[in-house]
Amino acid sequence: MSLDAQTLIWVLLLPVAALSGWMIGRRGAERRGGQRVSRLSSNYFRGLNFLLNEQPDKAIEVFLQIAEVDKDTVETHFALGNLFRRRGEVDRAIRIHQNLIERPRLSEEQRVQAVLELGEDFMRAGLLDRAEALFTDLGQFDQVAPKALRHLISIYQQERDWPKAIDHARRYEAATGETMGKLLAQFHCELAEAALGRKDRAAAVTHLRDAVEVDSHCARAGILEGRMALEEGDDGTAIRAFERVARHEVDYLPEVLQPLLDAWGRTGERVRARAFLADMVERSAGVSPMLALARLIQEDEGDAAAAGFLTRNLQRRPSVRGQNALIDLSLRRADEDPEETLRVVRQLSEQLVAGVAAYRCGHCGFGARAHHWQCPSCKRWGTVRPVHGAFGE
Ligand SMILES: [Zn+2]
């Protein structure tokens, strides 16, 4: 069940809980009212039951009946509005929430909640300016301010209004104490890229500094700084920026590897490049640093040394791209007997195939080495079949 449905069920259970409290209070005092209560709560449970069985059409029918009988049941209208919005019937949700807001006897808390719901209807309907106006008003009510701010941040992201997105993310931080550093850094980087687009380098530098201030390991800011340095012909700064990106988050290494190799090539920092790549080979699960280092070894020490390096590393971490590099090296080496390379490649293929599931359940996706009549994971019968493709049957 989705979180949304769970919240909805809680909303629906509230009046039931309130009414049962009322019943206990009234027990023995007045019998006539009790009947109305039990009728109402049995209808609630019918509606709930439909919801739990994911039959929203029938649930709506029941809740509409309740709303008809008892016009004061605010929670029923909230539940209905929610149901309509979830089903994409935004117009009906908007009407329900607008009617709620206009009720004179609504508590302040309920009215604020209804305005929040209406704002969410407008978001769903794509009426961003109207949603923005409501959420801006709601920002002053502590009970819903964080939610309203979250919606506003999302609206400004859709509108690509980064200064406003930044402003509201900061207010969200202040309201909740929750840090928004990574998100804020992305917004500052968007501003930096926009500044670069209109050739305003000074503004771009300021925005990048802001990004690093809120997220000191921001990879995107590092990559942008490196690219800007390259455009200015400043290889030293570019190398430092790109190396920092990869050290902080090794998964971004492939994004900066080629410009990094080019910059090292121009500055002639061979030793530094090899030491850095050797460090990355240890840290990265990917094959790129291994292949790059193999090329440097080949240039410095020759084909045999590069082949030896690749063979050692591929045995630890077999990969098809690594295997291809090994075959290429062997093809280049006229002096070499290809038998040794073939033996290594054969062994690597064995390792690669051994790591892959030969069978897979067509229902749940469970992978297995051997055939099972009953899937060990979802317990269905006859769904486990051989895998086809590069590594399969
Ligand atoms: Zn299964």
Secondary-structure blueprint of this entry?
Blueprint (H helix, E strand, L loop, with lengths): L2 H24 L4 H22 L3 H14 L4 H13 L3 H13 L5 H18 L2 H11 L6 H14 L3 H15 L4 H17 L3 H14 L4 H13 L3 H14 L4 H15 L2 H14 L4 H14 L1 H14 L3 H13 L5 H17 L4 E3 L5 E2 L15 E3 L7
Helix pairs in contact: 1-2, 1-4, 2-3, 3-4, 4-5, 4-6, 5-6, 6-7, 7-8, 8-9, 9-10, 10-11, 11-12, 12-13, 13-14, 14-15, 15-16, 16-17, 17-18, 18-19
Bound molecules: zinc ion.
Which key terms come to mind for this protein?
2% strand; binds zinc ion; 393 residues; mainly alpha; three-stranded antiparallel β-sheet
Report on this model:
There is one protein chain. The protein is an all-alpha fold and 393 residues long. Among the domains are: 301-355; 356-393. 74% of the residues lie in helices and 2% in strands. It contains 19 helices and 3 strands. A 3-stranded antiparallel beta sheet has the order 2-1-3, with no helix packed on it. A hairpin with a 5-residue loop joins strand 1 (359-361) and strand 2 (367-368). Helix 2 (31-52) packs antiparallel against helix 3 (56-69), helix 10 (181-197) packs antiparallel against helix 11 and helix 18 (320-332) packs antiparallel against helix 19 (338-354). It starts with a helix and ends in a 7-residue tail after the last strand. Residues 14-34 have low confidence and may be disordered. Zinc ion binds next to loops.
